[in-house]
Design goal:
The protein contains 19 helices and twelve strands. The chain is an alpha/beta fold.
Length: 580
């Protein structure tokens, strides 16, 4: 995991090395200051040698200024290195997420991935900055202070040496107690993120059902859980500071007492005692800083594990070693296909699906809610892999294609239509980044979208808000259909994507498809018989199985489910539906 994270340092290796290097120089200069002070006291002030005081004092000031400069440089490079590291970390995670299959995303959940790329990365960034700067300073300060204290007086150094194991044991206990709580905190952050996302995304539903109080209660419940866990962890971490203070002051009092006796005995000078106290103080403060670094590492350890899980996760969908790079046509063949989201054959949502479509044919799919209609069509562009059987597109197994090539020739308008922040043109060009304005207008006319687009003041330059919130459901669906048509696919899949348009517009869409893209295989999932009755074949799914397949006329004569749907909708006046 550490190796995986270290690769994200990349172009910031120089800064990551310069920060501790400059910090090392700062520590050396800072260590020299108490030495110069002791010399000024013992050889200058006590002997009345003003020239020595001036010369040594100048060196002391020069060392202090250089220490300040190198400290500032270390801070600058550590900040650049840590922010760059965090940038690369987010980039690597985001790039890997783009390769995830739907099942990989389902494994983590969207809210968890967002938390890992924000809160967790920030924690790791802060820890990294403290490691290359504060930790280096603390460790070096410890080493140099111990050397200087031993050099001044080995007996007094023993008092100082006793403090280190006491602090080490105390810090270890704090770490082992606090870490599990922080792991729980970040899992709860995922839950909080999910609650916020659901609320913001479904705010219209919340308001229409007057459920604001319930949503606030959900938010406060999760927020209070984070508060309680953080409070527990902070209570444990709070022992760190008093423990350090007690040990530090006990150490200083002991050195004052023992050092005073040595001065009286003549085995220690005033300047040496002064510098020794300074070194001990610096050392104990550096230990305190080191404990803060460990606290940050405790917090970030859970984040590192969560980030590592995303970085090492591999998509369960891969292109083969020697993939087929061309889709010859839009023919489709399901040969006894079964599918399970979990891979468990006892939990299959599609069972023994068997049918075929010639290139250019139109297939309508109908069935009750939960009959796995969407699951079936998602297998065609290989958004999921089949569990059993054989699935061919253009006469070739979908697993033998390069994933990008296969998906480039399959345009899919999902049940939940998604538009992104940007102009209508920018959204349409997801289908073809190089499309001309004339091509945009053409596909929008086919999708029955051109007319309402031109009613906007800015036309095709109209800005679409996040999620397409400033256009109606029917307009959003037609824009998504136009975007799919711009790909000029060999297979076009409409997953209940005309449900928000009236039957008149729906009929125009179907007619446009037959006239303008006759060679494209078209699959339409619909609840309305009128949307599929002109299809070459109509497939009825029931509990994940093919209940019947045939033309409108054939099914109307032979299939009771189709008859019931047709006459119920005809009686209900489905053709008088209006756009949502």
């Amino acid at each position: 995991m550490i190796k995986q994270l270290s690769r994200c340092i990349k172009e910031y290796k120089k800064e990551s090395l310069l920060a501790p290097l400059f910090m090392s120089v700062e520590v050396v200069l800072e260590i020299s200051i108490p030495y110069f002070m002791s010399k000024i006291i013992d050889h200058g002030l006590n002997k009345g040698n003003q020239g020595y005081v001036a010369r040594t004092g100048t060196l002391l000031v020069f060392a202090a200024l250089l220490s300040l400069i190198f400290g500032a440089l270390s801070g600058k490079f550590s900040a650049k290195a840590s922010t760059g590291f965090a940038k690369n970390l987010r980039k690597e995670m985001y790039h890997n997420i783009q390769n995830f299959s739907f099942s990989n995303i389902d494994k983590f959940s969207t809210s968890s991935l967002v938390t890992r790329m924000t809160t967790d990365v920030t924690n790791v960034q802060n820890a990294y900055q403290m490691i290359i700067r504060v930790m280096v300073r603390s460790v070096l300060m410890q080493v140099f202070c111990i050397v200087m204290v031993l050099r001044i007086n080995a007996d007094l150094a023993l008092i100082f040496a006793l403090a280190i194991p006491i602090l080490g044991v105390g810090l270890f206990i704090i770490i082992t107690k606090a870490h599990p709580i922080f792991e729980k905190v970040f899992r709860t952050y995922d839950k909080l993120n999910r609650v916020v996302q659901e609320n913001v995304r479904g705010i219209r539903v919340v308001k229409s059902y007057v459920r604001e109080d319930r949503e606030i209660e959900k938010f406060e419940t999760v927020s209070n859980e984070i508060y309680r866990n953080f409070t527990r962890a902070e209570k444990i971490l709070a022992f760190n500071s008093p423990m350090m203070q007690i040990v530090m002051y006990a150490c200083l009092i002991s050195i004052f007492w023992a050092g005073g006796h040595k001065i009286v005995a003549g085995s220690l000078t005033t300047g040496q005692l002064m510098s020794l106290i300074t070194y001990v103080t610096q050392s104990l403060f550096s230990l305190m800083m080191l404990s803060m670094v460990f606290v940050m590492i405790i917090i970030s350890k859970a984040s590192i594990q969560r980030i590592g899980e995303v970085l090492v996760e591999e998509s369960d969908l891969h292109s083969p070693k020697d993939p087929i790079m061309e889709v010859k046509d839009g023919s489709i063949e399901f040969n006894h296909v079964s599918f399970s989201y979990t891979g468990d054959e006892n939990k299959e949502c599609l069972k023994d699906i068997h049918f075929s479509l010639a290139s250019g044919e139109t297939l309508g799919i109908i069935g009750e809610t939960g009959s796995a209609k969407s699951s079936l069509v998602q297998l065609i562009p290989r958004l999921y892999d089949i569990t059993e059987g054989s699935l061919k597109v253009g006469g070739v197994e979908t697993k033998d294609y390069d994933l990008e090539v296969l998906r480039e020739h399959v345009a899919m308008v999902l049940q939940k239509n998604v538009l992104f922040s940007g102009t209508i043109k920018e959204n349409l060009r997801w289908g073809n980044p190089n499309a001309t304005d004339e091509e945009l207008i053409h596909v929008c006319k086919l999708a029955q979208a051109h007319e309402f687009i031109m009613e906007f003041k800015e036309g095709y330059d109209t800005f679409i808000e996040q999620g397409g919130s400033n256009v109606s459901g029917g307009q959003r669906q037609r824009l998504c259909i136009a975007r799919a048509l711009l790909k000029k696919p060999k297979i076009l899949i409409l997953d209940d994507s005309t449900s928000a348009v009236d039957t008149k517009t729906d009929a125009k869409l179907q007619a446009a498809f037959l006239q303008e893209i006759p060679d494209t295989t078209k699959i339409t999932i619909a609840q309305r018989i009128s949307s599929v009755e002109n299809a070459d074949k109509i497939l009825i799914l029931n509990e994940g199985r093919v209940h019947a397949i045939g033309s409108h006329e054939e099914l109307l004569k032979t299939n009771t489910i189709y008859q019931e749907l047709y006459y119920t909708q005809k009686k209900g006046g489905d053709e008088h539906g209006t756009e949502q």
